Amino acid sequence: MHEVLKGIRVVEVAQYVFVPAATAVLAEWGAEIIKVEHPRTGDAYRGLRRTGPLAISGPVNFAIEHANRGKRSVGIDIASPGGREVLDLLVRSADVFMTNLLPASRARLRIEVGDLRAVNPRIVYARGTGLGERGPERNRGGFDYATFWARGGSALGATPPGAGAPAPMPSGAYGDSTGGLVLAGGVAAALLSRERTGEPCVVDLSLLGLGMWSMASAIAGSLMQGEPWRAMQRVPATNALAGTYRTRDGRWIVLVCLQGFHQWPGFCRCVGHPEWIDDPRFATAESFTESTPACAALLDALFAGATLAEWRGILAGFDGVWEVAQDALEVARDPQAVANGYVADVDAGDGTTFQLVASPVQFDEQPPRPRRAPQAGEHTEEVLLELGMDWDRIAALKASGAIA
After folding, report:
1. Cα-based angle 130, 216, 16 (whole degrees, multiple of 5)
2. Alpha-carbon span 12 to 20, nearest angstrom
3. Are residues 128 and 210 in the same domain?
4. Do residues 281 and 264 touch, judged by C-beta distance below 8 A?
5. Is 234 domain-assigned?
6. What are the backbone angles phi and psi of residue 187, rounded to the nearest 5°?
7. Helix, coil or strand: residue 205
8. How many structural domains does the chain have?
9. Can you point out the beta strands (E) in 61-164?
10. Residue 303 — φ and ψ, nearest 5°?
11. Averaged over 106-122, what is the pLDDT?
12. Do 28 and 170 belong together in one domain?
């Protein structure tokens, strides 16, 4: 693994997934991440017992592992005088500080930009928020299901007409995981800027802004056309070769042939129906477009006549883009995912391993190698000793409750 951020130290004061996912990505890029957790309660996300349909049980807390891989954890009550002493030591030694605390909490704990720059003028300061740092709702919190998915436009953007409810988010931590990758990129850019200019940046990303970026094409089109985006149809009104079709065994094949008319002859030959090429309904670009419903009916019947396994063989020679709609287990075992190292084995530290999806950016063609997440406060003493604190002071801080 090429550790492009080796030598960079990041201090994280954050909970749940949005910002912790960003530092998890930075850890896979080689940065040293020190996660600050409360010495008695830890990250509140450690108490999660279910995400969507899946229980969090067994020896591995997959939710914590996803967002906290590769970090060291220190238990510090940063609201206490002793805890603040320790936090200042950490900040003084760090390149980046990252948080998702709300403005009121940041002010109360004295971890705003000015507070930390007084300790370390060169520190890059990164915030992940629900609704942004400005505006009347800056003090409101947010989760990705509500703020990124629903308020950001994706929920209705994915909901077909006539549905009884908005489309649910397809995965736990869906927006948070994407946001973590984006925020990690912002921090990397800020570090490059500091290297070149000597000046540190403040980096901001909100779930609302991220949700709008994810829907940016739809929002731009809606603004220009004066009407809201509607969910994409199973078969577009003008191109049957950009539709989704069900196989005989109930699976779905997604065709994305954006130049449908030009790719029609090759498709027809591939599926064994060359007579469709000269069918007057599909013989010109105009008639192909106008006859989309008729073409879609042909393809519905066609795909329903064979199983997915059979279609994989038939379509192997087609040069248009098509894919199979896969579930979470299938994509984890996808030969392309395996070949590219997108799912990684992680050493649990007890002689066993488990698997995580690696962060997707690779350097020098080497997939990241995730390391396990820490237990709450696991590295408190280790980190404080590295910072130059002696055992007597560590003992006194423990006795006061300032550290774990």
Report:
1. 25
2. 7
3. yes
4. no
5. no
6. -65, -40
7. strand
8. 2
9. 72-75, 96-99, 124-129
10. -70, -30
11. 98
12. yes
Among residues 325, 344, 364, the one where a domain terminates is: 325
Q: Are residues 208 and 245 in the same domain?
A: no
Q: Tell me, yes or no, whether 209 lies in a domain.
A: yes
DSSP string, 1-63: ---TTTT-EEEEE--SSHHHHHHHHHHHTT-EEEEEE-TTT--GGGG--EETTEE--SS--HH
Please answer whether residues 126 and 187 qualify as being in contact, where contact means their C-beta atoms are separated by less than 8 angstroms.
yes
Alpha helix locations (H) across 252-327?
Answer: 260-270, 285-290, 292-303, 308-315
- On whether both 102 and 199 belong to a single domain, the answer is yes
**Low-confidence winner among 42-56, 105-119, 202-216 (lowest mean pLDDT):** 42-56
Determine how many CB atoms are found less than 10 A away from the CB of residue 77. 23
CATH number at residue 107: 3.40.50.10540
For tokens 């287990």, what's the residue?
329
Same domain assignment for residues 273 and 368: no
Domain that holds residue 66: 9-215+335-400
Provide the β-strand partners of residue 36: 74
Q: Which tokens belong to 228?
A: 């809201």
- The answer to whether residue 26 sits within a structural domain is yes
Give, as one character, the DSSP assignment of residue 165. S
For position 257, which CATH number holds?
3.30.1540.10
Q: Which amino acid is at 108?
A: R
Task: Give me the residues paired with residue 76 across strands.
Answer: 403
Question: 259, 250, 237, 242: which is closest to 311 by C-alpha?
Answer: 250
Q: Looking at residue 48, what is its pLDDT?
A: 85
Helix 81-92 with 391-400: angle, nearest 10 deg: 130
The pLDDT confidence band at residue 57, using thresholds 50, 70 and 90, is confident
The per-residue pLDDT for range 286-295, each reduced to its tens digit, is 999 999 999 9
Q: What is the mean pLDDT of residues 225-252?
A: 96
pLDDT at 282: 96
Q: What is the mean pLDDT of residues 88-112?
A: 97
| End-to-end CA, the chain | 33
At 2 the pLDDT is 79
Residue of 165, 167, 210 whose CA lies nearest to 18: 210
Give the residue-averaged pLDDT of 92-98.
Answer: 98
